[in-house]
């Protein structure tokens, strides 16, 4: 199936277990390999969750893309939780990292 960028942007992003993470906001493209490397997901529920930056989902974590939604590995939800904890200065287990893009730069 071929989808245009216009069709992709704004698609809801769910984990395999059904948790809504937000909507697709941007794509990062590797121009050398001419492929999408990361999907940037914006938080849809800023008030419920403190996380207000974009969650970076690597292409290897994408399980399915349809015209209605994007489904990602459940581990992406765990990364999101780590981001929320880091924003409220909760302790993150040693050796665990999470990636986030801050739009306020």
List descriptors.
105 residues; alpha+beta; SH3 type barrels; 7-stranded mixed sheet; 16% helix; 35% strand; globular; disordered C terminus
Describe the structure.
16% of the residues lie in helices and 35% in strands. The chain has helices at residues 5-8, 75-87; strands at residues 12-15, 20-30, 35-42, 54-58, 62-65, 70-72, 100-101. The protein has a single domain, classed as PRC-barrel domain (SH3 type barrels, Roll). It has 105 residues and is α+β, with helices and mostly antiparallel strands. The protein is globular, with a radius of gyration of 14 Å.
By secondary-structure content and strand pairing, the structural class works out as alpha+beta
Order of helices and strands: HEEEEEEHE
CATH class: Mainly Beta
Largest sheet: 7 strands, mixed
Cα gyration radius (Å): 14 Å
Looking at CATH, the homologous superfamily is PRC-barrel domain
